[in-house]
Amino acid sequence: MESKKEGLSNGCLWIFLTFILTVVAFGVIKFAINLPNLITLFIAILLSLTLTFKILGKPSIKSILFNVTILIIVFSGLNYLGGFWNEIIHQNDTAVFTEEESVATDTIFENNNIIPVFTSRRNWKDNYGNPYTGNLTVRQKDYDRLKNHIATFRYGNEPNFWGNLYNYIDEKDTPSLDLVMNTFKEIHAEKKLNQMEFAEMVVSCIQDIPYSFVFQDDCLPADNYEDAIKDILKDCPDCCIGDVLYGVQNPVSFIKNLKGDCDTRTMLIYSILNYFNYDVAIANSDFYRHSIIGINIAATGKNKKYKGKTYMLWETTSKHFKIGVLPATSSDVKHWNIVLTSK
């Protein structure tokens, strides 16, 4: 007959205790070091196994393999459901424009001249609760020069229309985003961020800006649209800007008015991360009628393979979405296509 301790080490109590210790260890490691989820889980399981062995005794090799397999399946399921529950919890998080979201007219002193600018003071937290503050600023003269430049875009019969358009916008706008880049440089220097933390800081800054529709036609009253659009516009009638060619704002215009939908946001993030030498991509989906960002970086979650690289997908239209976590309504990666990469 097995001893009592050996029975405990092979039974449900062993699984339960290991699960609880793994959850605790995962949370502590993630908070303290913020490693990728897969690495964090691996370390957490090793630590929990060590503690469980000391408390309940060591089970048979067969039981260890069986129980660890169960733990991996459970955590994989929880990771998948995380994106679903994240969407359910935050599906009504669409922000309404307030005084805090307004863009002010200001001036800066540059090259012995007083230069008018548009600026907004941003205060936000990333998806791990780290607070940041900084100004998003563009010169008025740059906005006036670039606000309608998309109309000069010319394309022939190239199959990748959106990729060519985004690349054109990036090349035109990036030199005039230098004040925005300076803000992120200052945050990087002050906080001493690593590569993943810096990307998280940039993306969460744009996620924090309230969502607005950008239509090629005029904005109409809410009742003229399908339910998904109607519900947002009823709560926030100002969350719409119309008469914008191709339904996408260039980054300088977005900074000027803070009105951005999916590809307006991905376009700005792409330009910023490209400037800071990230291997970044824009992924579009005709099926979902949506656009998201992709980053070739060590992480776990939803991703898209493209030309031998793995781009981690990242939702940008709402707060609380971490890298690799997509809304349940747009999570099938087969419907996503990479349309532009920086490298």
UniProtKB/TrEMBL annotation:
Residues spanning the membrane: 12-33, 39-57, 64-85
The keyword Transmembrane belongs to this UniProt entry's keyword annotation: yes
UniProt superkingdom: Bacteria
Alphabetic keyword roster: Membrane, Transmembrane, Transmembrane helix
Protein's recorded name: Uncharacterized protein
Native source organism of the sequence: Patiriisocius marinistellae
